[in-house]
Amino acid sequence: MIAIVDYDAGNVRSVEKAMEHLGAEATLTRDADIIRSADHVIVPGVGAFEDAMGRLDRYGLTEVIREVAKSGKPIMGICLGLQLFFEGSEESENDVEGLNLLPGRLKRFPDTTGYKIPQIGWNALHIKTGTKLFEGVDDGTFVYFVHSYYLEATDENDVAATAEYMIPFDAAVEHENIFATQFHPEKSGDPGLRILKNFISI
Questions:
Q1: What is the DSSP string of 119-183?
Q2: How far apart are the first and last CA of the chain?
């Protein structure tokens, strides 16, 4: 069973529908016991970093997610979920700490002539060879992004794919049982479904 963490951060229904399309048993929940007992855990989300961490704390989910990550169980962050997996973000005015599952921080795209912030739309991935998450996905595949802040991972060995929008940035990570994508695989057509299938097959 796949637990999709529901913390009022939006976009959870599209992830749930993608799981249904793949024939996977998925439950949208904020019940700590269900999350702990799941075979896989997905943390989706759109919105602001600081607000999202506040909701995770309010629902008692912060330590549950950290516990799952430490347990070795496959866990995946999507969009805002990826951002929350790291140490912190420039978006947080109060320097709120993230889940700290992996080292790195989120930075705001620089104001650049000819580019709009946020990045909204399709962009190509540069995929590192040998990753579990991108097995069967071609380098240069286009996926769907919506974000104003980008990941700068501390350890380049954690980076599974990069993309470029004004500047190169880390678009996906893979570290042991921890996976995350800045883009939305559930909105990225067949390649996105393949990525989700790869994750739930781990």
A1: EEEEEE-EEPTT-STTTT--TT-EEEEEESEEEEES-GGGEEEEEEESEEEEEEEEETTEEEESS
A2: 13
Provide the pLDDT confidence category of residue 189 given band limits of 50, 70 and 90: very high
Say which residues have a Cβ less than 8 Å from residue 41's Cβ, sequence separation at least 6. 2, 3, 5, 35, 65, 68, 73, 74, 75, 76
| Residue found under tokens 């529901």 | 6
135 is catalytic: no
| pTM score, whole prediction | 0.96
Active site residue 184: yes
Catalytic residue among 16, 40, 79, 175: 79
CB 3 within 8 A of CB 38: yes
